[in-house]
Amino acid sequence: MDQVVASRRDGSGAGKALDIVPGAPAGANEGASSASHARRSAVDPPVRDPTAYAFTDHFLDRVTQPGRYVTFDAVREAIVHGQLRWSTTDGWRFAYTDDGVRYVIVVEDTETPSPVVVTGWTEIVDPEAARTARRFDATDVETIELRSALSARSEERIPDEIRPREVDRPFTVGNHRVRTDIGDGYVVCADCNGRFRSKATLTTRHCR
Q1: Domain that holds residue 198
Q2: Within this chain, do residues 103 and 171 fall inside the same structural domain, yes or no?
Q3: Following DSSP, what letter does each residue of the chain receive, concatenated?
Q4: What's the mean pLDDT when you consider all of the chain?
Q5: Which residue intervals make up region (Disordered) (predicted)?
Q6: What local confidence, expressed as pLDDT, does residue 29 receive?
Q7: Which tens digit of pLDDT belongs to each residue from 156-189?
Q8: Which of 42, 146, 159, 163 is 20 to 30 A from 9 via CA?
């Protein structure tokens, strides 16, 4: 995992990890306590105490970006109540679903002085429930689904997956604020008017 920079806040670190699912690394110790953080290793499940966690600058930046939908409340709910899974790409993840939206929170608590929330994102798991939820409107749901499509195949051009989406409120990808009209096979930056068909181009080309 890449080195992260975290904003610190106090916390006891006390907690217990539950509902480990298959796929965790060999040696994972269900129910491992964080009472002695010094003895923890990458295979030990992270703590279930949200007050123990600091936040990386990367995560704090994401919280403030339009179209991210990850909140501090979602982080707390995911850590306390979410499913805990191991990913070979980024380690431990908490996943919590509410109103048809899954909040995925990636954490690290072995290579830093205190546990940290590294990053997070949203996924639509029930479009109908998301569209009828008070907290979301149709553009919110379209935004989450479009961002998910761009991230799932980040190196590829995906005009066929962009074309069905209509997002009139710009959301941030890389340093661009993008939107799209239904029928267009690209997103358009609201600031530089650039047209993009993949996340790779959005994150490697500067906004002019």
Answers
A1: 157-204
A2: no
A3: -----EE--------B---B-TTPPTT--TT-B-S-GGG--TTSPPPS-GGG-EEEHHHHHHHHSTT----HHHHHHHHHHSEEEEETTTEEEEEEEETTEEEEEEEE-SSSSS-EEEEEEEEES-HHHHHHSTT--HHHHHHHHHHHHHHHTTTS--HHHHTT--EEEEEEETTEEEEE-TT-SSEEETTT--EESSHHHHHHS---
A4: 83
A5: 1-47
A6: 41
A7: 999 999 999 999 999 999 999 999 999 999 999 9
A8: 42
93-145 pLDDT, tens digit per residue, is: 999 999 999 999 999 877 767 799 999 999 999 999 999 999 999 999 999 99
**Whether residues 85 and 170 fall in one domain:** no
Q: Are the beta carbons of 118 and 108 closer than 8 angstroms? A: yes
Specify if 30 maps to a domain.
Answer: yes
Cα–Cα distance between 174 and 17 in angstroms, integer? 34
Q: Within this chain, do residues 19 and 88 fall inside the same structural domain, yes or no? A: yes
Nearest to 102 by CA among 77, 70, 80, 124: 124
Tokens of 39: 């003895």
Which position has the token pair 């997956």? Answer: 161
Per-residue model confidence as pLDDT tens digits over 19-77: 333 344 444 444 433 444 455 676 778 999 999 999 999 999 989 888 999 999 999 99
- Residue 207 structure tokens: 């906004």
Q: Within a domain: residue 134?
A: no
Residues 103 and 176 in one domain: no
Predicted model pTM: 0.79
